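Q: I have 156 residues here and want to know how they pack in 3D. Can you give me a structure?
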Amino acid sequence: MDSSGPGTATQRVARMIQGIRVAMLTTAAPDGSLHARPMATRDEEREEDFTGELWFFTKAGSGKVDEILNDADVNLSYVAPEDHRYISISGRATLVTDQEKIDALWSPTYRAWFAKGLDEPDLALLRVEVRTVRYWDMLSGGMIELPFGESNRGRR
């Protein structure tokens, strides 16, 4: 994958993860053990909409939320081996229960995980603020860290 093309860091990250349907979210338990689980990515996420935040639906009372409330540092892994895309995103997660935001991001495809849709008890969002992006670069044969920070968020 050519991720060295033009655009800001946010645009490049959006291009790298676009179309990858599942991300593995890793959180840390209070005892320091790491827990990873699959999270459905938003099909609607478009390059021009990405501002350095990633959003995922969850239940507010889930174990992953308990872990995030204890330690907000998380990692997201995106993999598309057919395109040689391997991306690791570290960030800070927060629980969002704002009904307007939930309504705005909801898609019927989430009914596979939340059968009652927007009426699902405990429905919430996880917002991950991207801090560090690393990706596998085939040409160099190693991981590349993409500069990502306040100066790159939201710029066009």
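Q: Anything worth noting?
A: Residues 9-146 form a domain with the Pnp Oxidase; Chain A fold (CATH 2.30.110.10). Residues 9-17 form the longest helix (9 residues).
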